Amino acid sequence: MSEIEIYTTRSCPYCIMAKSLLDKKDAGYKEIAVDGDSEKMAEAVKRSGGRKTVPQIFIDDQHIGGYDELNSLEEKGRLDQMLGHDS
Predict the structure, then answer these.
(1) Which residues, other chains included, contact 27 with Cβ-Cβ below 8 Å and sequence gap of 6+?
(2) 42 DSSP assignment
(3) In terms of C-beta density within 10 A (0-12 exposed, 13-18 middle, 19 or more buried), how is residue 87 classed?
(4) How far is C-alpha 7 from the chain's CA centre?
(5) Is the Cβ–Cβ distance between 6 and 15 less than 8 Å?
(6) Which end of the chain has fewer beta carbons closer than 10 Å to its terminal beta carbon, N or C?
(7) pLDDT at 87 over 80
(8) What is the CA angle 43-48-61, rounded to 5?
(9) Is residue 7 within 8 Å of residue 40, measured between CB atoms?
(10) All domains in the chain, ordered by first residue
């Protein structure tokens, strides 16, 4: 099973949609809330190559991007493979 990390804020609708998609896939993930935490946000920006938006999603330490990129992987049929699920 893949290790998934997702940087989020409570009020972000894209964060909620990304977590919902991962939940539907039964993919466990570590949520890193950056609300009011400048250190965690700086970590997310550094790890994502300068992106300052949430969510920022990593699968096995590979930066996926945000919700749009996660959903695109799902639409292309590539997300299950990245998550370590059998097709």
Answers:
(1) 1, 2, 4, 83, 85
(2) H
(3) exposed
(4) 7
(5) yes
(6) C
(7) no
(8) 90
(9) yes
(10) 4-83 (3.40.30.10)
The reported pTM is: 0.94
State pLDDT tens for residues 16-57: 999 999 999 999 999 999 999 999 999 999 999 999 999 999
Instruction: Summarize pLDDT for 46-68 with one digit per residue, the tens.
Output: 999 999 999 999 999 999 999 99
The pLDDT value recorded for residue 46 is: 97
Assign 3-class secondary structure to 22-41: HHHCCCCCEEEECCCCHHHH
